[in-house]
Structures are given as structure tokens and as C-alpha cells.
Design goal:
This protein is of the alpha/beta class. It is built from 15 helices and 13 strands. The relative contact order is 0.15. The N terminus and C terminus are likely disordered.
């Protein structure tokens, strides 16, 4: 009671009630203010600590994100992400550099051999990396599972389309004819491998052109009717489908898409004996649009980069921009991406046999 008595006496000098002066009500505003400042201090400390992570290792440094393709598709994602990655990798400067060649292999080779300081990263499909690696392409000098993964931004469904000028009205017509010409951005692209292997499973002859430098060049050639078909992510094609310059033939998924309910899935044409293999092949697309660095980035640096990507991918302004661009986001953290990769690698035997015949690359 000693403390309460003192408070009561001090309050009584100013004519206040003894109950109010010595009770909990008098102390509540002071306690609330004290807790407010404690909470405010903790928040400031957290922010300063987060900032100090980037300041310590990346302040004043330039982080180069290599896109191993030309304009469009993956490049669009990388350039939309870069300013937000920079924003949350405090004190850094993030630039995007295109390095196309051999379906992404040139740029991935470059990043794989870069210094493991977190300043050289790659934004690309890891599905293509695995397929090219399993096929044993001669110019490939990396091991996909050894890259330092920061996370996955999206895993879009993929869609086979033909030009509106094409004679094909349905995928069934293509199968009846037994042959189709398609374009790809190099032999190292995931869509090239998936199309080639799907054609083999269906007994379809595929005339493949792999001389396109970017998905934009490829899409334009399809629209103009210079090639019959193309296989790319659905978000690339939806605007063109809406204006009628390309026609959707088949979606590479186990179920039809809500956006294209009349477009059949590849499984509707696949022999029952091949469906399990096809499921393993399509699962690779879940490793689309990943951000990774060379092997051996030390845990502290990698952790900073991963947390910066986590914050960038959740940034409301970034998500709003992507929605406006018609580019979906299905973010997976660095640890989540590694878990997904480990699950896919369990199917390596099946898929490796698929991409290699008689010990040679099936190309």
C-alpha cells in the first residue's frame, strides 16, 4: 500500500479522488505509453537489423540478374521483379542482363562459374536445366541441383497453340495428320524437350525449328504463320487468343484451365500406358521461373538474398504490377524450391531414360 498511499496523497493535493489517484486507472495511460514505446523500439530495431543485413554485404554493390534468353516471357518477369528485389536488398543496385544462347545454356554456364558472392544470379527455368543435363548436351557445364536457389516466382501452365492462319482447327487434326512444325528458342529450352518427348509418346512427327532468339520472336513468327505451332506459358498466349491471332490446341496439365475451358488437356490424347510418364514430365514445369546463383554462396549471404526475395515477392506494389501485366505469381521460397527439386529428382531415372535413347541424347 505504500506506493498507492504516496500516489493518493499527491493526487489529493490537486483535489482528485483517492480511488482514482491510487488505483489502476491512473497508471493505465502511463503503462500504455510505456508499452507503445517498447513496441515502437522493437519494430525500429527489427527494421534496422533487416537493413543492416543488406548494408553489411550488399550496400553499394551491383547485383546482376542474368536472363539466359532474349526479350519476352522470362525477361518480362525478371525486369518486373528487379526494382523490388533492389528495394528489399537494402543498399544494393540490381540490374538485368540478357545472355541468350542454346535455349538458356550459355547464360546458365556463365552463372554457374561466377564468383559465389551473391552478386551474379540467374532468372530462368530450372526444368530446362534438368532436361538438358539429363540429355547430356555437350555444351552444358553445370549441375542443376548444385545451384544456390533463392526461390521460384511462378509456375505457369504451358499451352500448345497454332497460328490463326494454320490449317489446324484442333489437336485431333494434328494427330490424324501425324506431323507438325513448331518453333523453339533453342534445343536447351524446356518446351523443346517437352514437345519432342510428347510427340514421341504420341507417335507424332515433329519438325522443330530452334533458331529463335527469344519468346517474342517465336510468338511473332507463330502469329504471322511462319511456323505452325508453338509451346509456351499460358500467360504469354492468352492476350493473343483473345484477339484471335493464335488458336489454343492443348494444355499441358492434368485438368482443363478455367480460362480456357474448351481447350483439352494433353492427357485426353495420351495412351493409358504413357500417362504416368507424362505426369512426371509435366511436373517439371513446377520449376519454372526460378532465381538462383552459383554453387557455394555462403549461408549468411544466401539467407540475406532469400529474405530480400521473400519480401519482394510479397510486396503489394509488385503483386499489383504483375496483375496489371497479366503475369501470374505463385511464389515458393528458397527452401520450398529445394524441397520441390528433391521431389522431382526422385523421378530422375524415369525422365532420364525418356530424354536419352541408347545412351544418346534424344534430339
Amino acid at each position: 500500500m505504500g506506493y498507492n498511499t504516496v500516489m493518493y496523497e499527491k493526487k489529493s493535493k490537486f483535489g482528485g479522488s483517492g480511488v482514482r489517484g491510487g488505483g489502476f486507472g491512473e497508471r493505465l495511460p502511463k503503462i500504455a505509453i510505456a508499452w507503445f514505446f517498447v513496441a515502437f523500439f522493437c519494430v525500429c530495431l527489427f527494421i534496422l537489423n533487416s537493413c543492416s543485413e543488406g548494408d553489411k554485404l550488399f550496400r553499394g554493390k551491383t547485383v546482376t540478374v542474368v536472363v539466359p534468353y532474349g526479350a519476352g516471357g522470362m525477361d518480362d518477369y525478371a525486369r518486373a521483379l528487379a526494382p523490388f528485389f533492389q528495394k528489399h536488398l537494402y543498399g544494393s543496385r540490381v540490374v538485368v542482363r540478357n545472355m541468350p544462347g542454346e535455349g538458356g545454356i550459355v547464360g546458365k554456364n556463365y552463372v554457374y562459374s561466377a564468383k559465389a558472392d551473391g552478386l551474379t544470379l540467374c532468372f530462368a527455368t530450372s526444368a530446362a536445366s534438368l532436361l538438358a543435363e539429363w540429355a547430356g548436351l555437350p555444351d552444358l557445364h553445370f549441375k542443376t541441383s548444385s545451384f544456390s536457389f533463392l526461390g521460384r516466382i511462378d509456375a505457369d501452365d504451358h499451352l500448345l497453340v497454332v497460328s490463326a492462319k494454320s490449317r489446324y482447327a484442333s489437336f485431333a487434326e494434328i494427330l490424324r495428320e501425324g506431323r507438325i512444325e513448331m518453333g523453339f528458342s533453342g534445343q536447351g529450352s524446356d518446351d523443346y524437350f517437352v514437345a519432342l518427348l510428347t510427340a514421341d509418346l504420341l507417335g507424332l512427327a515433329l519438325d522443330a525449328r530452334t533458331d529463335f532468339a527469344s519468346s517474342n520472336d517465336l510468338t511473332l513468327a507463330c502469329v504471322k504463320g511462319e511456323i505452325n505451332g508453338s509451346l509456351l506459358s499460358t500467360s504469354n498466349f492468352l492476350p493473343l487468343i483473345e484477339v484471335g491471332t493464335v488458336r489454343p490446341m492443348v494444355v499441358f496439365n492434368t485438368v482443363r484451365l478455367a480460362a480456357l475451358p474448351s481447350t483439352p488437356t494433353i492427357f485426353e490424347f495420351m495412351p493409358p500406358s504413357q500417362k504416368e510418364v507424362m505426369e512426371s514430365l509435366i511436373a517439371l514445369y513446377s520449376l519454372d521461373r526460378t532465381l538462383f546463383g552459383p554453387p557455394g554462396i555462403d549461408p549468411e549471404r544466401l539467407g540475406i538474398l532469400r529474405r530480400a526475395l521473400d519480401r519482394a515477392a510479397a510486396d503489394p506494389e509488385f503483386l499489383s504490377n504483375m496483375e496489371r501485366l497479366g503475369r501470374p505469381v505463385d511464389y515458393l521460397s528458397g527452401e520450398g524450391t529445394l524441397t520441390l527439386l528433391a521431389r522431382i529428382l526422385k523421378e530422375e531415372g524415369t525422365l532420364k531414360r525418356l530424354v536419352r535413347k541408347d545412351g544418346k541424347a534424344f534430339l
